[in-house]
Amino acid sequence: QFLMANKLDTAMWISRLFTVYCSALFVLPLLGLHEAASFYQRALLANALTSALRLHQRLPHFQVSRAFLAQALLEDSCHYLLYSLIFVNSYPVTMSIFPVLLFSLLHAATYTKKVLDARSSNSLPFLRNLLEKLNANQQNILKFIACNEIFLMPATVFMLFSGQGSLLQPFIYYRFLTLRYSSRRNPYCRALFTELRIVVEHLIMKPSCPVFVRRLCLSSISFISRLAPTVA
Question: In the chain, what percentage of residues exceed pLDDT 90?
């Protein structure tokens, strides 16, 4: 009754569980490397479906207008719909599957707990303990996801020069990263950029750091700071 009463949430729960399943079989290629590549695409397509359903839930009245598009781009679900489309037809990159896997795992765990509560307050204690441990590490998981989002930017550039990526991919991914940086719901990407800047500045200001390395790092920090969008 609980599942049928919340059909859209249940559909997203199932698609997230399928995303976790496919992502796990890509990261751990138990069925072979050839099959792993197909699971990579399936995971991203399932994540795109979840993101589209979540976006529909957040903005149910679709409109072909500039205002609707601007509103949609503020939603994290729209960000990860774009993310899935960026990587679904690209060369499989393990780094790119971790945000999809971990976000799906976190959201699926939250809804699984609701399903267990609807069934019985004491049902499946072992699974409940696992879900609680996952929830306790949520902040660290979100930081790890943000780290992946950031370091995928140079990875897309490297893929371009190695012949494994397209010319447009770094530019489209840069747009995705600016959306994540400006996210209203998830400040971890923005916070991690700040933390990385502080760490790098601390290291390069040590006397043992070569001058050319310090200059290169300071120039890179200045360049990246200019590219950062303004956050209200």
Answer: 56
